[in-house]
Amino acid sequence: MIGTELLDDPHAEPRATLRELGDIARLNALFGGTRAVVNALEPVFAAAAGRSRDPAPWTLLDVGTGLGDIPRAAAAAARRYGLTLRLVGVDSNPTAARAARGAGGPPLGMVLADGGALPLRPRSVDIVIASQVLHHLPPAVAIRWIATFGALARRAVVVADLRRSRFAMVGVWLMSFALGFGAVTRHDAVVSLRRGYTRRELNALLGAGGAPPVARYRPRARLVAAWDPARPGTLGPRGHD
């Protein structure tokens, strides 16, 4: 693993954790993290809306949910297609779990657990998403988590992470001052980008975890892979290679 980040420690000081989680939610909103996941899910929502006038609610599981900002954005997108999502977040950090449950927006149930050892049955949720989580894990652990995601989901898995980029490292460092981020967030944002992947690297992890190698670059140093675990293939829009 490259470096260390505050959120690598589930017992990190709560106030520092909450501040960084808030900063990450802002980064997601401003720099494409949220949009990358929602864009990958919208074709799934559109296809379901075309098949049923009154579809039953779906369950969305977000592994490493942070403040729950991305699953709540997914729920808002689903509503535009006449779908209702029941949201469940997973986090191993107790501070994050409490904060996500209490954040505004649609209700979010929380599971305090490790993403590779979830207390859920196979095919027990409709969608699994994991955004900016894998780079916190050693490769062997990331592979096990990917296999777990594919076993749990009935309809779709979306894995989103960061593309390793020196340009993005410099950009986020400079922008962090303008946005008023603390020194810890500024450090961790750069470490996260150093830990990021190339498309080939993420595809190798996906393949080893039994998933199709469908990772694509998205704007603003993002990588996204989306697939149907029953019919492997790309769900979201193709990015540039």
What does this structure look like?
- The chain is an alpha/beta fold and 241 residues long.
- It has a single domain (6-227), classed as Rossmann fold, CATH 3.40.50.150.
- The protein contains eight helices and seven strands; from the N terminus they run H-H-E-H-E-H-E-E-H-E-H-H-H-E-E.
- It has helices at residues 14-30, 33-51, 69-79, 94-102, 139-152, 166-178, 183-194, 199-208; strands spanning 58-63, 85-91, 108-112, 125-131, 153-162, 216-218, 222-227.
- Helix 2 (33-51) runs parallel beside helix 3 and helix 6 packs antiparallel against helix 7.
- The longest helix is centred in the N-terminal third of the chain and has 19 residues, at 33-51.
- The two termini are 25 Å apart.
Total helical segments? 8
By oligomeric state, this entry counts as: single chain
Integer average pLDDT: 93
CATH homologous superfamily assignment = Vaccinia Virus protein VP39
CATH architecture: 3-Layer(aba) Sandwich
- Encode the helix/strand succession as letters: HHEHEHEEHEHHHEE
Strand runs, count: 7
Range of helix content: 40-55%
Which percent range describes the beta-strand content? 15-25%
Distance between the termini: 25 Å
Query: Stretches where pLDDT falls below 50 for ≥5 residues?
Result: 237-241
Global shape: globular
CATH topology: Rossmann fold
Cα-atom Rg, whole angstroms?
17 Å
- Summing up helix and strand content along with how strands pair, one would put the structural category as alpha/beta
CATH level-1 class: Alpha Beta
The main sheet orders its strands as 3-2-1-4-5-7-6
Mind summarizing the main beta sheet? 7 strands, mixed
When the domains are counted, the total is: 1
